[in-house]
């Protein structure tokens, strides 16, 4: 009897099944979401995972971005280049957005359950809803579910919700200009469809090249009985000529490592589909060689020369100038006093400024005050305030007098202080000796309100200060009816000359190298063409002035930033722009206001205008949310086309600096006047270059708008105050504390 009970326990989905959940990761489907092949399942990726996929089959090409936005929420953006169902030949593009919500997890007896919406903001070609359950039995994962809309084209059973309300038996088919959430269609339709399938983890296979592991066999019965939309779907549901030969699909999935996913499948009884994807967990980026931080040398021994003797030596100025030959701007010595502080600061600057310069910073000032050294820097190749402070502490260690115990580090960007904090020298020494950590450095650090400290005795780098750079550029537009992706590759050179009083002159030159952005269709917008003429701008000139302006950034009060800019502000607009931002010390929020008078620039992007001008501006609220390192930005005001409304942006920022988020803008422009898409919306992924090894503050940004229209468009200046000051906040210091020792 005991043997029978033991055998029964092993066969039941108990501990072994739960262990299998941890051992076998969820896999991607052909639609770019976690699932079987064409159908979803109730599995999810680890929280935060981002995955991009390309898939190819006859008359179809898919490009997707999948994001495990929250532990229980999966979001997928999909761009499809498909057969033109209206003509029955040629291709057209379609955009879709899917979400899947976990209802509950699997346990020893209960399957995992999820509910999802497919293509709920698109044209409705793939729109459908589903409820799906999944249960794992060791290496076999079994899923089954019921679907509505596109997932009910198999017409398996009358919609059971119709027993509750007969209105559930009809499904509206009109989508207007697309891009809206049709609540009156959700879980509605005369029929529902059943789907199900299995995913089996194959044992490792021995090959002449080594062991092949990570293969999974997938077999499913699809609820979607259509191969394509010939015959008029979704406007019609009868007389369709695009039905699939079979609802059975089968394929293989292979994950050779934690970053790559490959798949091949035979679907609809006729088509072979191939797909490949790249996956990244923002908190676990690829391990790449990084530049090691400079060693923390012992404190120097006391020297015999006193500060007063140093001040009396006129050769200090000459020696300092020679040491800083590579630094833009002249070094000004402070006014001396009875204690000889100016001389001591000059002596320290002669040693410290070249070291900071060699470490990638622009040294701005240094001053000694008893046991505290105050060091101000700008620029640098480092993105986080913790890494900036840590590098400055290491570079200064061998040059500071032994009696200095505290470092007050000021970090400037574009002429304003974005971070100001006090560090204990001993905390870095303990960490270097293996008796401390980055967390202990953070625990002893003291963030201070941000403002410019004026120290008459400090040795200071004077003006002008010149910085410049050259970088590649890539402009992407997705969703063009004739081409899924329009792009333009180029190169840009820019420079910024900083002058006294926070004034700067900045500009750039761009050269188009290749691309098809200039082949976009002419705009059919009834609104002023503030953005939709992007193809015309791309055609008009190969060498352009994307920006050329004068601006002043300053701080009228602690933690208050101000900006005034005049000139060619961005590729499509020039004029006057003003902005203020209040970022209270220690707060998790900030508020800003910008007001702009701008005129539309010529298509050649030189100095002329087209005659259209507008006053635009917004009040903005920036807030860190208390869940999963998320944040929100809420804006309200007037946009470039003269429309009034608001924008909501929600994103998530990981410890690595990677950000993923989305935005939506609603204004007083009617959906039919806005055009295709109904309102402005999009998603973005921002990846700092330092994730891949090189020390850089640059960020690779992928912004995906399903369609580029004119409503809800904002001015894009080079130095918005939130972007300038964001990395210096107390919250940014806390989130990036691990960078103190990197």
Q: Any overview of this molecule?
A:
The chain is mainly beta and 742 residues long. The protein contains 12 helices and 35 strands. The strands form 4 sheets. It has a 13-stranded antiparallel beta sheet, with no helix packed on it. Strands 1-2-3-4-5-6-7-9-12-13-14-15 form a 12-stranded antiparallel β-barrel. It has a 7-stranded mixed beta sheet with strand order 16-22-17-18-19-20-21. Helix 4 (315-323) runs parallel beside helix 5 (341-358). It is globular, with a radius of gyration of 30 Å.
Fraction of residues in β-strands: 35-45%
| Global morphology | globular
Cα distance spanning the termini: 62 Å
Uncertain residue segments: 1-22, 304-314, 323-328
The SS-based structural class is mainly beta
List the helices and strands and how they pair.
Blueprint: H1 2-11, H2 15-23, E1 50-57, E2 60-70, E3 73-83, E4 91-104, E5 112-118, E6 128-137, E7 140-149, E8 157-158, E9 191-201, E10 205-207, E11 210-212, E12 215-221, E13 248-254, E14 260-267, E15 271-280, H3 307-312, H4 315-323, E16 331-332, H5 341-358, E17 361-369, E18 372-379, H6 385-397, E19 406-413, E20 416-424, H7 425-432, H8 438-444, E21 446-447, E22 459-461, E23 465-478, E24 485-498, E25 503-515, H9 534-540, E26 543-557, E27 560-570, E28 573-582, E29 589-601, E30 609-624, E31 630-638, E32 644-653, E33 659-667, H10 671-674, E34 680-688, E35 699-704, H11 721-725, H12 730-735
